[in-house]
Design brief:
Helix content: over 70%
Distance between the termini: 33 Å
Largest sheet: none
Shape: globular
Strand content: under 5%
Order of helices and strands: HHHHHH
Length: 104
């Protein structure tokens, strides 16, 4: 990760907030897909999609090895996703809950 001075850190925080607002402004999944395609390279988008597939399979209770066999994602990455699912910032869990219709 690049080293940034306080001014750059402040600007990055503002940009991160602005990016979150940009996602929030999208009204349909198609709009979000378009924003993701514009923001990311094909490889970056594939990595995001892989992680989301892993989240869903972990939530379904599948073991790491089976997730690897189904997705091709490394066991190391699966473990990292699992740690964030359990002890991250709550984004994965909230998204799963919302998609499962459990509300907030």
């Amino acid at each position: 990760m690049k080293q940034l001075d306080e001014q750059h850190l402040k600007a990055n925080r503002a940009a991160r907030n602005s990016l979150a607002e940009a996602f929030h402004a999208m009204e349909t999944p198609d709009e979000i897909r378009a924003l993701l395609r514009d923001l990311t390279t094909p490889a970056e988008l594939e990595a995001l999609v892989d992680r989301w597939r892993v989240v869903q399979l972990l939530d379904a209770g599948l073991p790491y090895r089976e997730i690897h066999d189904r997705t091709g994602v490394s066991v190391t990455t699966i473990g990292r996703v699992a740690r964030f699912l359990d002890m991250g910032h709550g984004g994965y869990a909230l998204a799963l809950k919302r998609l499962q219709g459990e509300g907030e």
